[in-house]
């Protein structure tokens, strides 16, 4: 939780009262590899901060898994459309490693916004950062070559090859596992 509070404080000089409220509200969850944090049909009710572990979000498209993001230590994760619209998700969120996450429910988050106005600023900054990240991912898929997308993934998550199965990396890049293997071989 210390890393989470330090991150919040790095965004805005929040009050001790907000930090105390976060400390009381945040729930530490030990999660196992292959555990679902969300499945289609469920309404996303939690926002998570990853203390340890690697997580992926994916959809099924014509029976094939399409990985759309990876999140790791010190990242927040959420199924945005389901969480905010309070509608069933189409998304899977899966742990790729054993890990520890800190969670807040939708209701707890709304109370924190109402009772600690500075938390709205923190949330807006984080939302802007994650929206920009989402736009970058979409741009890369449309505009970059396979080699450029692979290089960027390694820049973003240097140890991804050791942490995630090749099929998930390939799915994220919009490539086949064989193509990713060839790109990786050329880089070595």
Regions with pLDDT < 50 over 5+ consecutive residues?
none
Total number of helical segments? Answer: 9
Question: What is the first-to-last residue Cα distance?
Answer: 38 Å
Q: Structural class of the helix and strand makeup? A: alpha+beta
Strand order of the largest sheet: 1-8-3-6
Number of strands: 8
Mean pLDDT: 94
Following the backbone from N to C, one meets helices and strands in this order, namely HHEEEEEEHEEHHHHHH
Largest sheet: 4 strands, antiparallel
Helix content percent band: 40-55%
Beta-strand portion reads 15-25%
Shape: globular
* C-alpha-based Rg, rounded: 17 Å
Write the layout of secondary structure elements.
Layout: H1 2-11, H2 16-25, E1 27-31, E2 36-38, E3 46-52, E4 55-61, E5 64-71, E6 76-77, H3 80-85, E7 92-95, E8 99-105, H4 106-115, H5 118-143, H6 146-156, H7 160-163, H8 166-173, H9 177-187
Antiparallel strand pairs: 1-8, 2-7, 3-6, 3-8, 4-5, 4-7
Helix pairs in contact: 8-9
Question: What does this molecule look like?
Answer:
The chain has about 190 residues and is α+β, with helices and mostly antiparallel strands. The chain has helices spanning about 1-10, 15-25, 80-85, 105-115, 120-145, 145-155, 160-165, 165-175, 175-185, and strands at about 25-30, 35-40, 45-50, 55-60, 65-70, 75, 90-95, 100-105. The strands form two sheets. It has a four-stranded antiparallel β-sheet with strand order 1-8-3-6. A four-stranded antiparallel β-sheet has the order 2-7-4-5. The protein starts with a helix and ends with a helix. The model has no long low-confidence stretch (mean pLDDT about 95).
């Amino acid at each position: 939780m210390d890393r989470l509070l330090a991150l919040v404080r790095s965004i805005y000089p929040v009050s001790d009262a907000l930090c105390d409220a976060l400390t009381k509200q945040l729930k530490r969850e030990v999660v196992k590899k292959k555990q679902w944090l969300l499945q289609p049909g469920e309404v996303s009710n939690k926002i998570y901060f990853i203390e340890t572990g690697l997580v992926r979000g994916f959809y099924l498209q014509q029976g094939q898994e399409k990985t759309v993001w990876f999140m790791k230590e010190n990242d927040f994760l959420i199924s945005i459309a389901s969480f905010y619209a309070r509608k069933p998700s189409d998304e899977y969120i899966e742990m790729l490693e054993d890990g520890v996450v800190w969670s807040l429910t939708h209701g707890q988050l709304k109370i924190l916004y109402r009772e600690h106005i500075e938390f709205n600023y923190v949330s807006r900054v984080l939302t802007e950062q994650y929206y920009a990240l989402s736009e970058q991912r979409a741009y890369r898929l449309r505009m970059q070559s396979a080699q450029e997308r692979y290089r960027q993934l390694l820049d973003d998550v240097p140890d991804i090859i050791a942490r995630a199965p090749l099929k998930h990396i390939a799915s994220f890049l919009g490539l086949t596992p064989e193509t990713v293997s060839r790109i990786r071989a050329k880089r070595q």
